[in-house]
Specification:
Layout: E1 5-10, H1 16-25, E2 29-32, H2 34-42, E3 48-49, H3 50-54, H4 69-76, H5 82-91, E4 98-102, H6 106-110, H7 117-122, H8 127-137, E5 143-145, H9 151-161, H10 166-194, E6 207-213, E7 223-228, E8 239-242, H11 248-262, E9 267-273, E10 276-283, H12 286-296, E11 304-308, H13 314-320, E12 325-330, H14 335-341, E13 348-351, E14 361-365, E15 368-372, E16 384-385, H15 393-407, E17 414-417, E18 422-426, H16 432-443, E19 450-454, H17 461-470, E20 472-477, H18 484-494, E21 498-500
Parallel strand pairs: 1-2, 1-4, 2-3, 4-5, 11-12, 12-13, 19-20, 20-21
Antiparallel strand pairs: 6-7, 8-13, 9-10, 9-11, 14-15, 16-21, 17-18, 17-19
Helix pairs in contact: 4-8, 8-10, 12-13, 13-14, 16-17, 17-18
Length: 508
């Protein structure tokens, strides 16, 4: 398909002047509207304004300018059909071969904290999606470009072949529908938020590919990494400073580590292995926090993922460099810390910004999705001591710390902690007693005097008895069992304090 006439109307004007100039130099007639037409004219590029084509002025503050038969007829006419070609001639409509259009910056607008509803509504594009969809539908006759990154390849193809191939037009049409679909999803999400509709009848999920991955969870699985549409946060916004490319499992574990680190207060370190914490600690400085986190389970930490709560300094880097790690993620890295860490050729080093808790957690199941509101870190307002003994100030600190860590451990989860350090973690067991025994075994002699967090209630007193037998001196758990009275009585029998949080931290 030769390109003789192009319609250009873009919100993102990056690269558009050079692209339009290159088209004009090829003899392509340019039609444009609004700010795009002004930008091209100011650059000395010959352009025909849309009102000259339609014979109608832009009206309603520019809301209506391209919605006209002389525009959409030129886009939608299927050149393979003689009747369509004849009707264009009868109506005096010139065909349009190329539509270059991207849409109003709705997502960028609503991401601003002070955005008003009126501001947001004004950024809902109408004419743009109509043109894009029309051109994409008619890809047998028209090429549509919504992504500025395509300008160069399109010009290359025109230079080499003198036309845009059907294969390219079909691929561009797919990208165009993805573009308008994601745009509609952003608008629907914003309006659902205004209505405080947590679970609307239809949920539209949109994402943008960050990178292809070598393989998925296993080498025979294909995989890619996508970022949620809108302002990227967390792992999607991370910058890789060094090391091999990230794998699917690296990303899963790094995400788990980073989310846990965001829940820690002060200088903290989290070590993750297979999505579970194998070491977590907070301390007066970052290097001490990492050293104490590593001491929790020195065997499992080998080949682990480390997340830090603060900028990594040289002392912390030197501690981490003593062992084999897959990934280190932190808010930043001092130059001398990078000097130490980059000596490890394959170590992946990520600089990540803050993590904004999403409005919804989304998980895939066969044939559909599960949506839920996120699990908050803090204790519920109705958390209470249910035993005769009251926790000491130190025990309260460790109970809260253990409860935060338990949130990030696969159920059934038991965490033993002391002095701001996890000393034993029991994860993913079918029996809560077995999780308790596993945490105790990993803690060993360090279990004495610990605070124990259980992500869900003890259904029988045996779980609490196992924790106390291991050395736990205080317990925090949700409560809610029909046998709570028996478990409370057991705690009183052992003379230990126990806190009921009123909510659990299941993580399946």
């Amino acid at each position: 398909m030769e390109v003789r006439r192009a319609l250009i109307s873009v919100s993102d004007k990056g690269g558009i002047v050079d692209f339009a100039r290159a088209l004009a130099e090829r003899g392509v007639a340019l039609v444009s509207s609004g700010g795009t037409a002004r930008a091209l004219a100011d650059a000395g590029i010959a352009v025909t304004p849309v009102p000259e084509v339609t014979g109608a002025p832009e009206i309603l503050d520019g809301r209506v300018k391209t919605l006209h038969p002389k525009i959409h007829g030129g886009i939608l006419a299927d050149r393979r059909k003689p009747a369509h070609v004849a009707q264009l001639a009868e109506q005096g409509i010139e065909p349009i071969d190329l539509v270059v259009c991207n849409l109003y910056p709705f997502e960028r607008t609503v991401a601003h904290p002070a955005v008003t509803e009126e501001d947001a509504i004004e950024q809902i594009d109408v004419g743009g999606p109509a043109m894009v969809r029309a051109a994409a539908k008619n890809f047998h006759s028209v090429a549509v470009v919504v992504n500025p990154e395509r300008y160069g390849p399109i010009l290359d193809e025109l230079a080499e072949a003198g036309s845009i191939s059907l294969e390219t037009r079909r691929r561009l049409a797919l990208e165009a529908f993805q573009h308008t679909g994601a745009y509609d999803a952003a608008i629907a999400g914003y309006l659902a938020g205004i209505e405080h509709d947590l679970f609307p009848e239809r949920v539209l999920l949109a994402a943008t590919k960050v990178m292809d991955l070598r393989y998925g969870e296993n080498s025979h699985q294909a995989a890619a990494f996508y970022a949620s549409r809108g302002a990227p946060t967390g792992l999607a916004a991370a910058e890789q400073l060094h090391g091999k490319e990230l794998s699917y499992n690296n990303l899963l574990d790094t995400d788990a580590a980073w989310k846990l680190a965001q829940d820690l207060e002060g200088a903290g370190a989290a070590i993750i292995k297979h999505s579970n914490p194998c070491g977590v600690a907070v301390a007066g400085d970052l290097s001490e926090a990492f050293r104490r986190a590593f001491e929790c389970d020195t065997t499992s930490a080998f080949g682990g993922i480390v997340a830090l709560t603060k900028t990594c300094d040289r002392a912390t880097a030197e501690e981490m460099a003593k062992i084999f790690l897959e990934v280190v993620v932190a808010p930043g890295f001092d130059d001398d810390a990078l000097e130490v860490l980059t000596a490890k050729k394959n170590l992946r080093i990520l600089k990540a910004g803050g993590y904004s808790m999403p409005e919804m957690d989304v998980r895939r199941v066969a044939g559909g999705f599960l949506l839920q509101t996120p699990d908050p870190r803090d204790l519920a307002d109705d958390a209470k001591v249910v035993t005769k003994a009251e926790p000491t100030e130190e025990q309260w600190r460790d109970l809260r710390f253990a409860w935060v860590v338990a949130k990030h451990v696969k159920s059934n989860a038991i965490v033993l902690a002391k002095d701001g350090m996890a000393v034993g973690v029991g994860a993913g067991q079918m029996s809560r007693v077995e999780s308790t025994e596993l945490a105790a075994r990993r803690a060993g002699e360090r279990a004495g005097g610990t605070s124990c967090a259980s992500d869900a209630f003890f259904p029988f007193r045996d779980g609490l008895d196992a924790a106390v037998a291991a050395g736990a001196a205080a317990v925090i758990q949700p409560g809610g069992s029909v046998r709570d009275d028996e478990v409370i009585a057991a705690a009183d029998e052992h003379g230990i304090p126990m806190v009921f949080t009123g909510r659990r931290h299941f993580r399946h």
